[in-house]
Design a protein that fits this description.
This protein is mostly helical and 293 residues long. The protein has 15 helices and no strands.
């Protein structure tokens, strides 16, 4: 046996002096405090400035309830549709090779590069009274200035989130387990529900969380297709409408606090899911993702 080599000490990842490192950390924390933490604190402070009783009265208002209900309807329709699309797109892209595959991957990322306002305008040009469908949609199946248009806008803006979480993981996992299941006699649906879906469940939950958070806060595209119609406002639109009235900012601040609270809950859930996902999908020495037991 050869003698073991000398033990090497781990070198620090950076050679900057301690003063520089602490200065950079302080700048980062100051930036986060000024541009992230402070606005949230101000929103909750102003929302509760007139007392908790007044705050609860605003939350019980019928208008706010209608806005919350409209938001939940849009999210409740858009997120399941995006889950189905994300799973189908990820399965198609990672398990098969076909012409136009790279184009499909690029199109999935399209909503990240297109302004939400442009997306809403595109829906108006297609389904509006002067759009490609002429007056047919207006007379027979109203889309613009109605709930279907708000749902379509939400779906368009949020559909990449599930797919972009699943595609890298499913590409890393390969097709060996699915092929083994088929050899053992499993059908297509059995392979999907017993092999593929359990292997990607944490990435799927992570994508669903991000998709839900984005759908809850969507403003631009929904604002275009909603058109400021009374009773056709999601929670972000309701906040904007109330705040521009300038007569009583309390309802707007209370509604904004609800959105801020959902953001904090999303952040906590995202942190927990990221930790659990890291435990399951950590890489083994040979580079293959470790499967959950």
């Amino acid at each position: 046996m050869s003698a073991p080599g000398p033990i090497r000490r781990a070198t620090p990842g950076t050679t900057e002096p301690a003063v520089a490192r602490y200065a950079l950390i302080a700048i980062a924390l100051l930036f986060l405090a000024l541009f992230l933490v402070l606005p949230l604190v101000v929103i909750f402070y102003e929302a509760l400035a007139k007392g908790f009783k007044a705050y609860l009265e605003v939350l019980r208002s019928p208008e706010l309830g209608t806005a919350v209900r409209t938001t939940l309807i849009c999210v409740g329709i858009a997120v399941p549709l995006n889950v189905v699309f994300g799973l189908a797109a990820a399965w198609c892209i990672t398990k098969f090779r076909f012409p136009g595959r790279s184009v499909l991957v690029t199109l999935i990322e399209l909503p990240f590069s297109v302004s939400p306002v442009i997306a809403g305008l595109a829906l108006v040009l297609i389904f509006g009274a002067e759009g490609w469908g002429g007056s047919w949609f207006v007379d027979h199946a109203p889309v613009i200035f109605s709930m279907p248009g708000m749902v379509l806008a939400t779906v368009f803006i949020t559909f990449p989130f599930v797919a972009r979480e699943l595609i890298p993981l499913m590409e890393a996992q390969g097709t060996e387990e699915e092929q083994a299941a088929r050899v053992l006699g499993a059908g297509g649906w059995q392979t999907f529900f017993r092999v593929t879906l359990p292997n990607v469940k944490w990435a799927l939950l992570y994508g669903v969380l991000l998709c839900t958070a984005r759908a809850l806060g969507e403003f631009g595209a929904v604002a275009v297709v909603a058109g400021g119609q009374v009773g056709q406002a999601t929670l972000p639109l309701y906040v904007e409408q109330l705040y521009h009235e300038r007569t009583n900012p309390q309802p707007a601040l209370a509604a904004a606090s609800l959105l801020a609270f959902t953001g904090i809950i999303t952040l906590l859930a995202k942190t927990w899911l990221g930790r659990e996902r890291g435990k399951v999908e950590k890489l083994t020495p040979d580079g293959d993702p470790a499967r959950a037991p």
